[in-house]
Design brief:
alpha/beta; three-stranded antiparallel β-sheet
């Protein structure tokens, strides 16, 4: 699935899992200076998924990339440079500050990989909402499971079009629900009954075979989306 590897650092030039030294949060100032936080406060050696989301959101917010995810020409700053493949890349950490003694960058390919990942997720959200006739204003809570979700900046996730444009307070990070659910079913008869009941109600949807998936996916490749009405609160960027 396109939504998997990029959020785990896969297919990203300096991507990595959230281990010691991984950059987990990034902020880019208007003068292009970078602020970041790393796992265990160690010297930075790469980017985990949450940092990639932050980086692309910040690049878009500052007008360094356009709504197609392409670096804009004519920006005169040493951080934006031509990479070995001929495309542009943006330097987040210079080698002298890096625990790996190399420049840590976001490349054009990295941005494209994130676009593929976020487009797959948002297209899935769109199709599920259409199937159940649910509007954005109908969503009381959006639950993000898994350890990865705990590190996502929800504002940045909405800005790039990864998550629906709903009020941030409705987005809730619920941690490792698979593990929590397994524990509950081991110690509670009622929890097991509930799990069995839910398993009978849940329906599997093959998104790839949905006739609308391709068009939804293509529209979601834009940042945040081809249709600005889908992300009204992000128009100011």
């Amino acid at each position: 699935c396109a939504s998997g590897p990029a959020f785990e650092g896969g297919h990203i030039k300096h991507g990595m899992k959230a281990v010691t030294g991984a950059i987990e949060r990034i902020s880019i100032k208007s003068n292009y200076e970078i602020e970041y936080a790393t796992v265990d406060d160690a010297a930075p050696i790469g980017l985990c998924g949450s940092a990639i989301i932050d980086a692309v959101a910040e690049l878009y917010r500052l007008g360094i990339i356009n709504d197609r995810g392409r670096f804009k020409a004519g920006i005169n700053n040493p951080r934006l440079r031509k990479a070995s493949d001929g495309d542009l890349e943006f330097v987040l950490v210079w080698a002298k500050d890096s625990g790996a003694s190399i420049d840590i960058t976001v490349t054009q390919k990295d941005i494209n990989e994130l676009q593929l990942a976020k487009a797959a997720i948002f297209a899935a959200c769109s199709i599920l909402m259409k199937r159940k006739n649910v509007r954005l204003e109908d969503i009381d809570s959006l639950l993000i499971a898994g350890a990865f979700g705990a590190y996502i900046n929800p504002e940045n996730a909405k800005l790039i079009g990864l998550l629906p444009d709903i009020p941030t307070e409705r987005i809730k990070f619920v941690g490792n629900t698979a593990l929590s659910g397994a524990k509950m079913t081991l110690i509670s008869t009622e929890a097991r009954k509930t799990a069995e009941m839910l398993s009978r109600r849940i329906r599997y949807i093959e998104l790839a075979s949905d006739p609308e998936f391709s068009s939804e996916f293509a529209d979601a490749m834009f940042i945040p989306h081809k249709n600005p009405d889908r992300f009204p609160n992000q128009r100011k960027f």
